[in-house]
Structures are given as C-alpha cells and as structure tokens.
Write a structure and sequence with these properties.
12 helices; disordered N terminus; Lactosylceramide alpha-2,3-sialyltransferase; Glycosyltransferase_29; lipid metabolism
Length: 337
C-alpha cells in the first residue's frame, strides 16, 4: 500500500502544470547599469589600506604542497575541519602544486564573485565581468552561449563533487579549481581528479547526484579550500551556533558556496564585487539560475542553508559599501523602487 501511495504521488507531481514565468529584463535596470559602468573604475568596494601580499594569503587560505595542517582544523569534521581525515589530507597535499605568474603578480587585485542567479540573465555584463583581475565562478555555472551575460574568463572555479560541471568547459589556461570539502568522500574524489583515477565504485554510493569522472586540468591547477574559511564564515560572519554532531544531515549552519566564496575573495582581494547574487523569493516562478528554468522556490525547500540570514548579511555589506553588487539582486541602489 505504501508503494502504491508513493507511485501515485510521483505521478501527481509529474502531471502538475504551472503557468510559465514570463522572464524579462527591466529596461531601466539595464540602462542605469550602462551609465554606472564608467563609475566602477576604480571600484570603491572592499578596500585594504595597502595591497595584499597575494602569494602569502593564497597559501594561507588555499592549501599547497607540504603545508602542515594547523591543529584547529582537526577539531571539527567537514565542512568545518578535517577531523578524522588528517592522513587523507596529508596524502593529498603531497601532490604537485605551483603558484602561477598570474597569481604571484604584485598588484592590488579587483575581484568579482560570479553567482549563478537568474538576475544575470539579459544584463549583458560579460565584458565588464571579464575586466576584473580575478573572476571567481561557482559550481557548474556554464559559459558558452551565456558569455554575453557572464563573460568567458575563469580565474577560480569553486565547487564540491556534486556541484562540479560534468563536462569541463572553462578554456582559460590560468583557471584554478578550488575543491570545497563537505564530507569525507569529497577528499577521495578530489584526489582521484588530481591523479586522473576517476571515481571508485564504493565512493559512488556517498554522492547524492552524479559527479564528474575527470577534470581536465594539470595537477598543478588544483587547490583545497582551507575549511577555516567556511568555519569563520559560519561562526564569525553569520554568527551561527557551533557545529554539533547529528546522526543525519546538518543544522542550517552551513553557508552557501556563494557566501563562502565572498569570504575567500575578501581575504584574497583588495576590492570585491558580486554579480548574480540574490534570490527573489516573492516571485517564486522566477528562474533560480541564469542557465535553466528551475524556480526560486527550490531554495525554500532545502534545509542546509539559512537563506534569510545570508540575505540580511549580504544586504548589509552592499548597503554599507563593503562590496559592490553589479546586478542589483541584493540591494539595488540604482533601481527606481
């Protein structure tokens, strides 16, 4: 009887129809963006007193060859630390990695974190995004036919196994893949990607959706995010409670990858801008991403991230001028209402 009930529910979900959301770009929004482009040079966003020593901060927040694991990173399990995984991490850090000339360049860095929000669609910000020194992209956000809106340069692509593109499309020769570890098997996966060994049969059981079998980058182009970045984002910036052990799942104290990437950018860069951030939950049929028709209400169905708390945090940063919001999805200072 239970099986029949489940099948009936699935059939009902498949036959459910909705009015398609009519997507359009606000012309005033787009015109004001055109007028503001010249004002963004130089950006008055996140700014340090002097230029950061880029190689040193990279080595602090993105793990490199032969770096010792700080003791505080062994206090918590993933995603807030490496508790119980010290041997795996040390084994991974023996793989060859190098600092490129582009990364080592001694200059103040203007960075943009490109989210995957539907607000990017139709704004034609691609050329402006490509003009930044460092372009950080998230998960499987595609380029291709979307380059007019999102650009075609990728300095850093941050992701975890299930979020990584199944088919690698970044053509930038300087691209770096930064792995974010949410669970122990993610370390095995990134090790397989670096060593070109693919995914083991046993590991497949621990992923909640299909993951790539390969990432066609040289081993020197991989990095491992220091989980302290994620922990600081959760506990210090968002003021979530300390992680606690649960039999299954997480409390809503795991930051989204977008806010984690913003935290990393603020540590690596002298000026930080955002594009493609912000969820319009009042328009639940609006597209969640710029590249598909998935509705925004999906974000209300997940239980890992506290979207409301993050939205308040981002709104405050943009309103106070700490970061710049190029697409106006967080706090639109150039919108009419």
């Amino acid at each position: 009887a239970l099986l029949v009930l489940v099948i009936s529910f699935l059939l009902l979900m498949q036959t459910r129809t909705e009015e398609p959301f009519q997507f359009h770009v606000n012309s005033a929004h787009k015109q004001v963006r055109e007028a503001q482009r010249s004002a963004l040079e130089p950006l008055q966003a996140f700014h340090h007193e002097s230029c950061l020593d880029f190689p040193s901060v990279l080595q602090k927040y993105l793990f490199y060859l032969d770096q010792p694991i700080p003791a505080q990173l062994l206090l918590y399990p993933p995603p807030f630390g490496f508790k119980g995984l010290k041997g795996k991490v040390e084994n991974l850090l023996t793989l060859p990695q190098s600092l490129s000339e582009q990364e080592a360049a001694g200059k103040c860095r203007r960075c943009v974190v490109v989210g995957n929000g539907g607000v990017l669609k139709g704004l034609e910000l691609g050329q402006q995004i490509d003009s930044f020194h460092t372009v950080i992209r998230l998960n499987s956000g595609p380029l291709g036919k979307h380059t007019g809106d999102v650009g075609n340069r990728t300095s850093i692509r941050m992701s975890y196994p299930e979020g990584t593109p199944l088919r690698w499309a970044d053509t930038d020769p300087h691209s770096v893949f930064v792995a974010v570890i949410y669970k122990g098997v993610d370390l095995s996966w990134i090790s397989g990607m670096i060593r070109k060994l693919g995914v083991t049969f046993w590991d497949w059981f621990f992923f909640w959706q299909r993951v790539p079998q390969e990432i066609p980058l040289d081993p020197s182009r991989f990095r491992l995010l220091n989980p302290d970045v994620l922990r600081q984002t959760a506990l210090d910036f968002l003021e979530y409670p300390k992680p606690r052990w649960r039999l299954w799942g997480w409390d809503q104290n795991v930051p989204t990858l977008g806010v984690t990437a913003l935290s990393l950018a603020s540590l690596l860069c002298d000026e930080v801008s955002l594009a493609g951030f912000g969820y319009n939950l009042s328009q639940q049929g609006a597209p969640l991403h710029y590249y598909d028709s998935l509705p925004t209400r999906v974000m209300q169905q997940q239980n890992m991230h506290n979207v409301d708390k993050e939205t308040q945090f981002l709104h405050r940063l943009v309103r106070e001028g700490v970061v710049s919001d190029l697409t106006g999805g967080i706090h639109c200072s150039f919108c009419s209402s």
